[in-house]
Design brief:
Chain lengths: 60, 244
């Protein structure tokens, strides 16, 4: 195998390893953040039309 | 818990800086640094191999320090940082173990030699794989985190062995920098310096992203446990766990 091919292959390997890593982190992070948003929404106290939002604690 | 701190908020800016630095480094490698007289084009592997090794060292060291802090304090952030640093170290160790044999094939006409530095880097690779496997298993079995931290400390012990292997045991691996090194021209040194900066900033971005992932994963797990422990309001509080 020629030095040129090996050099290009080394740079391609670097690009592949790091791109796969970044894509993997981004996919997993976006999925987890979506899960977290859904969990936060489901765990907030549910509000119905008959129960208006709570009044501010202090009013002048 | 998932509130982003100043360092995490700086990720977009750091990522842009890393992108500029990487482009500059690649430009210097192919447009400025001369082709080495003996090794030819394959010497250009040096500009990604050495910075990857530097990041591998730094990330492994950070992983071991954070792991030690975790063992001492049981702190969640230290554990998350150890997991993130170990993950980054593994990727750059993989780059070192891929690009090294490619250079060796061109320079030595052999992909691999069982000489001290190569063997000790391979051992580090196995330790980092073990660390990653234990970290993944610890997501379901938290006590395994302590074994992962111990493995990170073992990996730290391997670093000086890797570094001194060439000087102490006279292996085949070349020594280019430092006393007794083969030496580099000014253009090569400038290119290597820019590549080192680029890889360091890039690794910092990857570390922060991976750390963020670890923090969010823990928050999701905590909320899922809390949701499983709290009976839904319409169940009348019978204490029956909800279906998962």
């Amino acid at each position: 195998m020629s030095a040129e091919v090996l050099t290009v292959a080394a740079y391609a390997a670097l690009w592949l390893v790091l791109t796969a890593y970044v894509v993997g982190i981004a996919r997993r992070l976006s999925r987890l953040e979506a899960d977290l948003r859904a969990l936060k929404a489901s765990q907030e106290p549910s509000r119905t039309p008959s129960s208006p939002p709570p009044a501010p604690a202090t009013r002048r | 818990m998932t509130k982003r701190n100043a360092l995490e908020r700086s990720v977009p800016g750091l990522a842009a800086a890393a992108g500029v630095a990487v482009v500059a480094a690649i430009g210097l490698v192919w447009g400025y640094a001369p082709v080495e007289a003996v090794l030819g084009l394959s010497q250009k592997i040096f500009y990604i191999h050495v910075p990857s090794a530097w990041v591998m060292y730094a990330a492994t060291g950070l992983c071991a320090v954070a792991g030690t802090v975790f063992l001492a304090t049981n702190g969640e952030r230290a554990e998350a940082l150890a997991a993130a640093a170990g993950s980054v170290a593994l990727r750059f160790c993989a780059v070192v173990l891929i690009t090294g044999p490619m250079w060796a094939r061109a320079a030595w006409n052999a992909w691999w030699r069982w000489e001290p530095r190569l063997t000790s880097v391979l051992v580090l690779g196995f330790l980092l794989v073990g660390h990653a496997v234990l970290r993944r298993a610890a997501e379901r079995t938290p006590p395994l985190s302590r074994f992962a931290a111990a493995l990170a400390i073992l990996a730290l012990i391997d670093l000086p062995i890797i570094h001194l292997a060439v000087r102490k045991w006279r292996g085949h691996h070349p020594t280019v920098l430092g006393a007794g090194g083969g030496g580099v021209t000014t253009e090569m040194a400038v290119t290597l310096g820019v590549a080192l900066v680029a890889f360091t900033v890039l690794a910092l971005v990857l570390l922060l992203l991976r750390y963020r992932l670890e923090i969010v994963r823990r928050e999701v797990a905590r909320r899922l446990v809390a949701a499983a422990a709290t009976p839904p309001p319409e169940s009348g509080g019978t204490g029956c766990p909800p279906r998962s």
